[in-house]
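User: I've been trying to design a sequence by hand for this structure and keep getting stuck. Would you show me what you'd pick, starting by listing the structure so we're on the same page?

Assistant: Good idea, let's start from the same input. This is the structure you sent:
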């Protein structure tokens, strides 16, 4: 890997975007990278927009990336992918959860949820679609979608040398270690390697 790589994680409050970002950041530090992370909250409680920028490499000077600079965007909710796609660089990859979780403006009728979001995204970028909601439901808990997506991201980034299992077991709530590790493994197995990395 050469230079600095930029990862953008976006979602809706309550989806566990920050937890996934924290585990990813710890993993990258464990792998020996210089890492900078910046959290941006619209309303971080349930229903608001949440995004995290993670930049890593040999030496990172700033935690902030600009539009057109993200190597990978991971969208925990598909409309959030549309909202942030202008941050993806040409040739970058979008990992998107095929899942709807309307934000507050949509819930109160101030915005409309767009039609055919996945089709629009696939026309605009190299898109990996993960049905993390279905995977999490099959494992027994829809709250683990974030860890499914983290697994998909780890695979796309070819970060196989990191001890993900110990990081996940350390960071998730006590009693939920096994199901979260299963979620990560399922996401990892579902994704493909990205040509970006």
């Amino acid at each position: 890997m050469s230079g600095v790589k930029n990862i953008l994680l976006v979602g809706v409050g309550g989806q566990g975007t920050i937890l996934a970002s924290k585990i990813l950041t710890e993993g990258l530090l464990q792998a020996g990278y210089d890492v900078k992370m910046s959290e941006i909250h619209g309303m971080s409680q349930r229903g608001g927009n949440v995004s995290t920028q993670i930049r890593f490499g040999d030496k990172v000077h700033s935690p902030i990336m600009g539009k057109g600079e993200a190597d990978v965007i991971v969208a925990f909710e598909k409309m959030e992918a549309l909202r942030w796609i202008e941050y993806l660089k040409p040739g970058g990859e979008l990992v998107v959860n095929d899942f709807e979780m309307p934000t507050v403006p949509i819930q109160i009728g101030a915005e409309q949820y767009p039609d055919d979001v996945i089709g629009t995204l696939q026309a605009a970028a190299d898109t990996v679609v993960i049905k993390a909601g279905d995977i999490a439901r099959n494992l027994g808990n829809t709250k683990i979608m974030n860890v499914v997506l983290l697994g998909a991201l780890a695979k796309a980034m070819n970060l196989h040398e990191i001890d993900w299992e110990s990081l996940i077991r350390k960071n998730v709530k006590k009693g939920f270690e096994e199901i979260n590790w299963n979620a990560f493994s399922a996401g990892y197995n579902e994704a493909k390697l990205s040509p970006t990395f």
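That's my pick for every position. To get oriented when you compare it with your attempt: The first strand starts at residue 5 and ends at 12. Residues 5-130+158-171 form a domain with the Pyruvate-ferredoxin Oxidoreductase; domain 3 fold (CATH 3.40.920.10).
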